[in-house]
């Protein structure tokens, strides 16, 4: 990195103070894993090459529809958001990608924006379109929906916006478009469930036609909210049907918070992979709905099981298997930098634990119907404390062994509170 927001000396000083203890814990874990036939360094190398993108919108304090409680020093434009993303990647070293959102992140010069990100050691991941809210000066309202609206001019506007996002994405080096629409209904009979889907497909296929040959388009399904009776792309079935109809470059995106309670998300992952349509993830956690809580904070076991399916998928990848990993969270009560560092560590930890499952033993137990052995094989990996591996990977990549300690002692947020303009009150963004 050429432009680091946190003092490299501070990181080095902190790391020097805890390196001996870390080595001791790493070596001890290495011996333990060795007895299970696992080379700790191989897992560490996997972790070092793992990356999850952060959402530009996640750098600010989110809110509920009741209120938003701003944080002094939170970013108010894409330049400040990038600076915060740079802190997250500098300390954690597992979040080189930033997933931007338009029009929230619009600027005049996208080449300069790309250079600005690159100077921090960051790249842009999937671009996100926004046809779920009206913007000042917009010709047609999205009150009737967007890609599925009954109003032709509104559908065209939504198509044009998505195509514009692709154009911006080309300039900033992105290779994917994520489309989430809020289209749906609140009343039975409000719209025809079949014809809404037809209109969506016709409009989405026009967006798809504008996709460069080396891009993918990801359809993000969501069961409810903002629509509370029906959503046009409500579930993985609708998403899969749409992706299959649109074409090879169209895939499905799984946001962990967009399902009915208790749904077996890891099985959805396996099914979408089977269909060759697993495009990417929005990681977060939830207790009740699309809560957008920190990844793994409520149900870390589910996150592990999702990664277990991903490792199985890696072993039999199929054509074009290359899922995008992204965080999509709303940080209402924490400093977003701390939440994303914690989440990225949790996500990488689930990846590491899934990577150390004894696959041969698991498959043999499954094939032999040895239920308890199959379960314990997974459970042994899940119960392994991989924090020394994650910390060692960070240290070797130049990040912080104790990212929270370094971040707090850097007083970064306090400094930004002096420099940045204050954020207004008001409801947050869902
Ligand atoms: C909405 O619930 C989705 O999760 C989307 O990914 C949305 O585009 C994102 O949260 C930005 O608002
Ligand atoms: Zn999402
Ligand atoms: Zn969501």
Automatic annotation (TrEMBL):
Alphabetical list of Gene3D superfamilies matching this protein: Divalent-metal-dependent TIM barrel enzymes (3.20.20.150)
Keywords, in A-Z order: Isomerase, Manganese, Metal-binding
SUPFAM superfamilies cross-referenced by the UniProt entry: Xylose isomerase-like (SSF51658)
InterPro entries: L-rhamnose_isomerase, Xyl_isomerase-like_sf
Keyword Endoplasmic reticulum carried by entry: no
GO molecular-function terms, A-Z: isomerase activity; metal ion binding
Protein name as catalogued: Sugar isomerase
